[in-house]
Amino acid sequence: MLVESAPDMEVVAQAGTGREAVELARSARADLVVMDIRMPDLDGIGATRLIAADDDLAGVRVLILTTYDTDEHIIDALRAGASGFLVKDVRPAELLDGMRTVAAGESLLSPGPTARLIARALSAPEPPALGGAGPGCLSDRERQVLALVARGLNNTEIAETLGLSPLTAKTHVSRIMGKLGARDRAQLVIVAYESGLVTPGGA
């Protein structure tokens, strides 16, 4: 009902299980999948992993709806390829805005509790999420940009912080994704924390 109330959105399918969500993402050609974590047959993390690994679904983004008491699930979902998450008690307008943000190719990782949650969960030892090169392959400027992405800044905020134009900031982010083999900004956050470029609680 909420999505149908928005003039720029349309529900193309609804799934009751994780496997059904993967199948419908393929058949309905959805731009965005709003995924629960706890589902029968295949959980949302497994379903997200299958969607992210399917070349035919390269343009499909996944937004996870979850709660703060499942930190490990949130990080698992981001590692699996989700582009962000929202808590289930989010206000309707915020949910719609979040869906638009993720569908547009951005990640929903903003400063505040969400960023602190990710930083805390990523501080535990874990194998790298991506098999490509680490931040060492980046220029000094690109490392600065990556650090700001990891702290939840959008392109405009990055540009203001570094004295760049928004287009230049966007170009830097795109190049960083290419060098690191990252699917989206959510994976850039993971790389930044896992590599030690950004540390939990750091300035």
Characterization of the model:
This protein is mostly helical. It folds into two domains: 3-108, Response regulator (Rossmann fold), CATH 3.40.50; 135-194, Winged helix-like DNA-binding domain superfamily/Winged helix DNA-binding domain (Arc Repressor Mutant, subunit A), CATH 1.10.10. 48% of the residues lie in helices and 7% in strands. The chain contains nine helices and three strands; from the N terminus they run H-E-H-E-H-E-H-H-H-H-H-H. It has a three-stranded parallel β-sheet, with helices on both faces. The protein is globular and about 45 Å long. Mean pLDDT is 81; it is low at 127-131.
Sheet with the most strands? Answer: 3 strands, parallel
Fourth-tier CATH superfamily name of the largest domain: Response regulator
CATH topology of the largest domain: Rossmann fold
Examine the secondary-structure arrangement and name the CATH architecture of the largest domain: 3-Layer(aba) Sandwich
How do the strands of the widest beta sheet line up side by side? 1-2-3
Distance between the termini: 42 Å
How many beta-strand runs? Answer: 3
Shape by Cα distribution: globular
Helix content range of the residues, please?
Answer: 40-55%
- The residue ranges in which pLDDT falls below 50 over 5 or more consecutive positions are 127-131
Oligomeric form: single chain
Figure out the total of helices: 9
SSE order, as H and E?
A: HEHEHEHHHHHH
Mean pLDDT: 81
